[in-house]
């Protein structure tokens, strides 16, 4: 089996600095368009956002998208047309299945701290589902030298669930620790995104905020060359 890879170095991402929002886009988003970076399989958006104190996104609509938010620093206040009013904190993960349509707003509720977050969009397996909201607090100790599952297709599994045959894991490896990831579903691909530090994936070096898309594989050997945190996104390649 010959695996195929596509490397997205951190400095090749789209960038928009709106003052209140400093955003890096791994895939085409808003005013940044790159025809070679529209999506990776069902992964459509991977935004690395910093929101200034007290600022945020006004109410706006979504439909037929699975939207995952992972705060990295600070908090994000959320309000939506389903009646949810929540604060998502560092160590939480939130998902919205937009389905037939939702409206929501997100803002940084803190007057003196910025908020950093990943927002990730996946195309759903089923269109026009009833919109839903889910938020959980992770046990971050499970990420130490481990692939801690934070998302799956199954409501009774670890993490949140979505309408897609996808599995996300967060990992926090000590320098020189290595572990092998086994593919969950045949035909799926993997998008690895480094939060901090340096890792190798089957020998390919990745630094902070680098992304690597991999297809046609059954397992991946992942080693930390420094202390490193990273996100693994196993996703279907067709939608």
Automatic annotation (TrEMBL):
Residues 150-235 form the Quercetin 2,3-dioxygenase C-terminal cupin domain. InterPro entries: Pirin, Pirin_N_dom, Quercetinase_C, RmlC-like_jellyroll, RmlC_Cupin_sf. Keywords: Iron, Metal-binding. Fe cation binds at residues 60, 62, 104, 106. Binds 1 Fe cation per subunit. Pfam families: Pirin, Pirin_C_2. SUPFAM superfamilies: RmlC-like cupins. The keyword Chloroplast does not apply. Coiled coil: none annotated. The keyword Metal-binding applies. Its cofactor is Fe cation. Residues 11-122 form the Pirin N-terminal domain. GO terms for molecular function: metal ion binding. Belongs to the pirin family. This is Pirin N-terminal domain-containing protein.
């Amino acid at each position: 089996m010959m695996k195929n890879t596509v490397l997205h170095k951190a400095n090749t991402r789209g960038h928009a600095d709106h003052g209140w929002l400093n955003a890096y886009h791994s895939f085409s988003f808003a005013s940044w368009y790159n025809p070679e970076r529209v999506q990776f399989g069902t992964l459509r958006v991977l935004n690395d956002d910093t929101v200034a104190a007290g600022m945020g996104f006004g109410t706006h609509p979504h439909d037929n998208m699975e939207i995952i938010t992972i705060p990295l620093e600070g908090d994000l206040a959320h309000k939506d047309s389903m009646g949810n009013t929540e604060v998502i904190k560092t160590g939480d993960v939130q998902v919205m299945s937009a389905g037939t349509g939702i409206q929501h707003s997100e803002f940084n509720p803190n007057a003196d701290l910025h908020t950093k977050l990943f927002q990730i969009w996946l195309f759903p397996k089923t269109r026009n589902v009833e919109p839903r909201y889910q938020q959980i607090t992770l046990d971050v100790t499970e990420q130490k030298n481990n692939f801690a599952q934070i998302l799956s297709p199954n409501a009774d599994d670890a993490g949140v669930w979505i309408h897609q045959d996808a599995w996300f894991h967060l990992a926090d490896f000590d320098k020189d620790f290595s572990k092998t990831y086994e593919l969950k579903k045949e035909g799926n691909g993997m998008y690895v995104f480094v939060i901090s530090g340096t890792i190798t994936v089957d020998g390919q070096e990745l630094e902070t905020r680098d992304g690597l898309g991999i297809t046609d594989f059954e397992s991946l050997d992942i080693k930390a060359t420094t202390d490193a945190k990273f996100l693994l996104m196993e996703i279907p390649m067709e939608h």
